[in-house]
Amino acid sequence: MISEIQHTKSAPVKDVQIEGGLWGERQATNRNRTIPAIYHQMEITGRVDAWRLKWKPGDPKPHIFWDSDMGKWLEAVAYSLMTHPDAALEAQADAVIDLIEQAQQPDGYLNIFFTAVEPENRWKNLRDWHELYDAGHLIEGAVAYAEATGKRKLLDIMCRYTDHIDARFGRDEGKLRGYCGHPEIELALVRLYHATGEKRYFELSKYFVDERGQQPLYFDVETVARGEDPRNYWAKTYRYCQAHVPIREQKTAMGHSVRAAYLYSGVADIVAQTGDAELAAVCKTIWDDLVQHQMYITGGLGPAHANEGFTFAYDLPNETAYAETCAAIALVFWAQRMFNLEHDSRYVDVMERALYNGFLSGVSFEGRHFFYANPLASFPNVNPYDRFSGITTEQHYHREEWFDCACCPPNLARLIASIGSYFYSTSNDTLFVHLYNQNRSTLTVGGTTVRLAQQTNYPWDETVEMTVGVDAPARFKMALRIPDWCRSYTLSVNGAAVQAAAARGYVTIEREWANGDTVTLRLAMPVERMAPHPEIRQDAGCVALQRGPVVYCLEQVDNGPRLANVALPREAKLEASFDANLFGGVGVISGEGVRVEPGEWQGSLYQPQSVVKVMQKPQPIKAIPYCFWANREPGEMRVWIREI
Ligand code: ZN
Q: 13, 288, 436, 574: which has the fewest Cβ within 10 Å?
């Protein structure tokens, strides 16, 4: 049953106006370039027209995920409209929604492929065919669009479809005990419940979460019903889709990493609503496993291409890291939910790591090219998609304009457009400040409206200045996150130092706030050499450079070729500076490295060292933020640098 439990809530997207700084610029690029580019790609690949359901034999087939691409694009548009109204963009979205409306079947069913191409296969293969996943993304788009514009058309469409789904799946007599191979609808249904107040939608989400992995396994049942043998499952194990055992029995992050983190996000949503202690413990246990054993320093998840997911503890290869952009996004979703359950910054620390690194690397600086996989090292002819095929067609791994399976670009667009929501959470008496970037926000704490303005050039600068605006003096707590990477900080209110220790990662100031009060937080941000856990064999003997939340990398364009031979002496001085001419202004790190190579090499592949005379030559090194790699001259890249 649903009980309304008081947790903190993330700030509504519309209430956080980001102005300039890294996220302001990324949002402007998202608005001006990425969102239009995605629409253009959807148009030229047939994803818009496909809603007309005109497919006939001989035409190229729509892909079974196309509905989800549009759902995510509409969601991105909705968030963008919340902070930056745009009549033309809204009209474009309205036209798409009209097409979607016409594609809905009389019984409420809505799916391009299984209406136009293979209507006989509706709901026949939940394991692989993504109908509920598609529905989930359209639901999320619908909820966001209604909130942004007040227009309910898509929301009503999706309620009709959800009613259809609710009538088909569940434990009642005559229903199928199915659930989706690719989780997503679970978290979407909770959003739909909040948008409509319809408790059936929440109960359906809860059903999907709890039914997953129950015996007899539904994926076996439906496979047999199709006349196939479950032992021939292409992925070999239901661990791939987290359906091998019920979620309450799961203890480690496993399988396809996007599916995993979407599922865990849905589970956290159920916990937020019900207070289910057993599910809360599952979330925590899996979270701990993930961040202690299976996460890249960039916040990337899932090293393997084979299952687009997890392998085993401490297995974190760099050149072949899959680390799908969508997986970093899903981690951000889950982290936000975990914070709102527990009010502990350890979740936001991971969220920030993913946001500034393995997520942001997913889009080019100019905004029209995307990574699917986000490796932590790159070498010519090594492609993280194609680990074992030898020479690939790509000389250097680079971002693409689009993908056949285009999950990442619109996913990235919706997160950048809604990034403001991740800056703050509020409860009845506390305003939590999670992220730092220039912005003007209007937040509600208890009954008080607080206008908060941040001035900062974080993450390149250490200082964040916040100005509080209130109509009348008001008492509440402001909890400022002290990131896990920060080892010393100073804090003052109206110029007077505040001595306060952080608890669960937040330092809390409780006072009667007056209009114009200023808070100044200085987070010491030295360049850190990050050491890898000794079990991570792929990083042994290496360090990564991090300053603030930003992980840096070496690129060939700055440091020459054969980056594997570039080493950093342990005592080498490293200096952070701001390069105003690089990517609109970013931090860079420079220092004195050495190049460890033989002076020359003649003859066979392997030779005694005494013969070839390996030498160390001074080499200045320059590291740039990892998230901006592959935006200049193509070449090698490395996050983990040899240390000597
Ligand atoms: Zn993706």
A: 288
Could you tell me the distance, in angstroms and rounded to a whole number, from the CA of residue 408 to the centre of ligand 1? 3
Q: What is the CA(327)–ligand 1 centre distance, in A?
A: 7
Quote the radius of gyration of the chain (alpha carbons, Å).
25
Query: Which is the catalytic residue, given 159, 241, 283, 407?
Result: 407
Sheet holding 430-433: strands in order across?
9-10, 424-426, 430-433, 474-481, 506-513
pLDDT digits (tens, 9 = 90+) for 581-610: 999 999 999 999 999 999 889 889 999 988
Average pLDDT over residues 568-576: 97
Instruction: Give the residue from 548, 563, 576 showing the smallest Cα distance to 640.
Output: 563
Give residue 130 CA to ligand 1 midpoint distance, Å: 14
**What is the average per-residue pLDDT within 145-156?**
98
Cα separation values, 593 from 588, 615, 633, Å = 15, 13, 22
CA of 412 to the centre of ligand 1 (A): 9
Interhelix angle for 199-211 vs 185-196, to 10°? 160
CA of 80 to the centre of ligand 1 (A): 20
pLDDT tens, residue by residue, 258-317: 999 999 999 999 999 999 999 999 999 999 999 999 999 999 999 999 999 999 999 999
Interval between CA 30 and ligand 1 midpoint (Å) = 17
Per-residue pLDDT tens for 164-192?
Answer: 999 999 999 999 999 999 999 999 999 99
For this structure, is 308 an active site residue? yes
For 554, the enclosing helix (H) or strand (E) is strand 550-555
Name the active-site residue from 75, 308, 342, 636: 308
Tell me the DSSP string of 422-484: GTEEE-SSEEEE---SSEEEEEEETTEEEEEEEEE-TTTSSEEEEEEE-SS-EEEEEEEE--T
Strands 641-643 and 542-547: antiparallel
